[in-house]
Amino acid sequence: MFREIRKKRNKIEDSAAEELLQNSRRGVLAVNGDDGYPYAIPLNYFYDRENRKIYFHGARAGHKVDALRVCDKVCFTVYGNETIREEAWAPFMQSTVVFGKCHLMENGSEKAMEMLKRFAMKYYPNEQLADEEIAQAISVIFLFNVIAALTFPTLGGMLGLTNEGFGLFAGTAINDTSSVTAAASAWDSMHPGANVLESATVVKLTRTLAIIPITLVLACWQMHLARKAGGDAKSTFSLKRAFPMFVLFFVLASVITTVLQLPASITAPIKELSKFFIVMAMAAIGFNTDIVELVKKGGKPIALGFCCWIGIACMSLGMQHVLGIW
């Protein structure tokens, strides 16, 4: 499929090529860019020698990502071991050129987190610093969810929201399901008999289910772009990668509960167990979060998260006002 090296005497052993790939700090990834022009960009990477796979880390949007969504065929090059020979004026160096297919990993998946940890270990001096960096990244995501869980019940009362209004507000303006349930539970404690927890959870899970059509529509759009660009749409689309599997498990659990009409003696312990796991997860994130370091190193992400948080909250209240709920 791929050409052999033209000057056979310049070819290095496969083991040496793999060693260079293993030890180089960064390389150049080439993709099929806009209008048929190649696009090459230097990237940090991690080579999984055991599985013979290369992992890259970068932004979730941009020229590179757009190109990969249209065509997944890439070329990656690393070079090094530069030497100077007395009989020649030009330096000699070794290089490894890899051809293959590259696809985007599902953000937050167990495999992605494992590779992120191993990726970080290549560039960090020790494992503790890598763990701290990953924990801070996760903490930025949960920071505003926790703040919302603590402040939204009081804010809802100050704004004069009804029980129905607060259920909609919590379910739409808070991103994490555990924080939605925490805020709704706090509201119910402040307003006995409100039973907002159920309605807020339904709203949030409706948002979760909306991932299915959104994901499939985006996948079909990517296939359309691939065909339009003359690429192989089938090679760039994978239903397994595109479909959020956790949503499938959620739907399956909902169907089982609805069809089988499980008695309270079975569902009640499961609900309590789920609450326990949510508390444990939130506590684990908290124990791995240094607020001072988070503010020092995560200023821009925090500012971006704050703007998104305020924007979503205002949009939620605005829609309720338009619909006459608030």
Structure explained in plain terms:
With 326 residues, this protein is of the alpha+beta class. The protein is 62% helix and 13% strand. It contains 14 helices and 5 strands. Strands 3-2-1-4-5 form a 5-stranded antiparallel beta sheet. β4 and β5 form a beta hairpin. α4 packs parallel to α6 and α5 packs antiparallel against α6. The radius of gyration is 25 Å and the shape is elongated. The model has no long low-confidence stretch (mean pLDDT 81).
Determine Rg (CA atoms, Å): 25 Å
Helix content: 55-70%
Compressed to H and E, one letter per element, the order equals HEEEHEEHHHHHHHHHHHH
Largest sheet: 5 strands, antiparallel
Strand order of the largest sheet: 3-2-1-4-5
The dominant shape is: elongated
Give the oligomeric state: single chain
Poorly predicted ranges:
none
Count of β-strands: 5
The proportion of strand residues reads 5-15%
Count of DSSP-assigned helices = 14
- The rounded distance between the terminal residues' Cα atoms is 64 Å
| Class from secondary-structure proportions | alpha+beta
| Mean pLDDT reading | 81
